[in-house]
Amino acid sequence: MSKASLDSYYTKPNNLVDWFEESTKKFSSNELFGIKNKKTNQYEWVTFAQVAERVNNLRGALNKLGLKKGEKVGVIVGNSVEWFVCEQATHGLGGVFVPMYEKELQKVWQYIIKDSAIKYLFVSTQKIYDTIKSFDISTLKDVFILFGEGEKTLAELEKMGKANPAPSYKPHWSETAVIIYTSGTTGDPKGVLLSHGNLTHNSRVSYETFNVGVHEIGLSILPWAHSFGLTTDLHLFIYAGWQLGLAESADKLLINFSEIKPTHMNAVPRVFNIIYDKIQQSVAADPEKKKIFDAAVAEAVKNRDLKEKTEEFKFYDAVAFSTVRNIFGGQLKQVVSGGALIKPEIALFFSDVGLPTYNGYGLSETSPVISNNGPKRGNKYGTVGKAYKDTKIVIDKSNVGADSPDGEIVVYGAQVMQGYHNKPEITKEVMMPDTWNGLPGIRTGDRGWLDEDGYLHITGRFKDEYKLENGKYVHPESIENEIKLLRYVSNVIVYGEGRIFNVALVVPDFESLKTDSKTAAWAQGTPEETIANKECTDFISQQITEHLRKSFGGYEIPQKFLYIIEDFSVDNGMLTQTLKLKRRNVMEKYGERLRALYDNV
User: What CATH architecture does domain 466-598 belong to?
Assistant: First the structure.
């Protein structure tokens, strides 16, 4: 099917240049981005018009430097006004934008810069600048620092561009807008080619699935270098003319909530798991408070299906639940969660206190959203919702047998990527040979099933599953996600391929162990002393086992445990930038010790 015949799917504005410019015309004086001033410790806001002026100036400079249509501009920068200015200036000349993370391995930067043939690169610090300048990459013509003074700074470029204005180019929806590099859990990162149509369509449909007002304010937690933050935070808020405050860091979220007072937010489940756990610990520490809170929760459960709430609920809402809402600033109406599933009981708890959460599902390769729950389409806990507009989900059972309750999730839609940059063979492996209504399809690699109401249930990931010695399949990610809901566990990996039973490598949450009355006596020393205490580790192992019995078969539950003190992180190479486990790296470091758990069995 021709591009022209697909135009109806990509409603205008269908490129990111018109997307921003039309919003600027409508919302010129509206505040767009809020940034914490480190000197005053206050959030300061810039308007659509102020940001547009900077975009125009940088576009003029990049034009003067010689950036041509289709050439690449990259950034190694965290979420900031400058990040967006670089993105928009690039698109305004028909360029392709390549975002990277500040906390990344140098070899990954080097690979991405070379693979994508970045021509101009913007970095956040002198240290990163010096690192990049040490690379020998012929296609990289120049590097600029976003902040500071001097010839190679964004400020100097903006001055140049102001004196040399250039009109904006309006890309066709089918032109490549960004290359989002996947995290590379196995092998080199893959550059996902996303078009202007992919990104604008996904943002627009995301907007349409929620009950929103004329004016909303959000707290930007997700990195824009990942498609979830790019689509559902940055581009969606621009389309709607809303305010977006930028979070300072993960450890300052609670402070930022109180300062920004968001009404709408996108996040990952870990945020809510941590806050839920803090609430439970706080309540448990005060018997009188716990009595009131337990009564409030019980009353909330009774009121779930009532249109008119009872007087008892209204009382508890005022004395107990309002306190929970105030943690998030007191104005939050709804939360979208992706990356993993919020456990149903946690999601229901937040819904009961007036903070409904909506799980969604997607991939970098699908811009990213494929399906979601929402106030306009229903909210079935334990699922990732219904397929988006202009999206078809198919469950392919060809690799598992027709009798299997689930299969591989295959997606056709307006959000499906153009392919992987410079990787035609891998592209061919994942892209479907046919289309649906002219729209491309892709194999997700995930397992799942659709219920009778069209809600998608995720059951695992094909590349991570393995067989035990008895022939039974194990989906380790599902088990790991369940274990990580326990307050005593920070991280975990489950292993057992070809073995008689599963084992687990566990990183305890040492802070929780210290503050919990059941474990505090064991955890007042160093982390090394804590995991050397067999009473403590046996207790955690027992908690894991009892917790898993509620949801998993006996063959899936780890039978032996190895405890370590070093948490998995981006910095030590155990997690991707989106906090997914790099199994290969973990096994390279700890595999021998895990396999030793099977000695004498």
Answer: 2-Layer Sandwich (3.30)
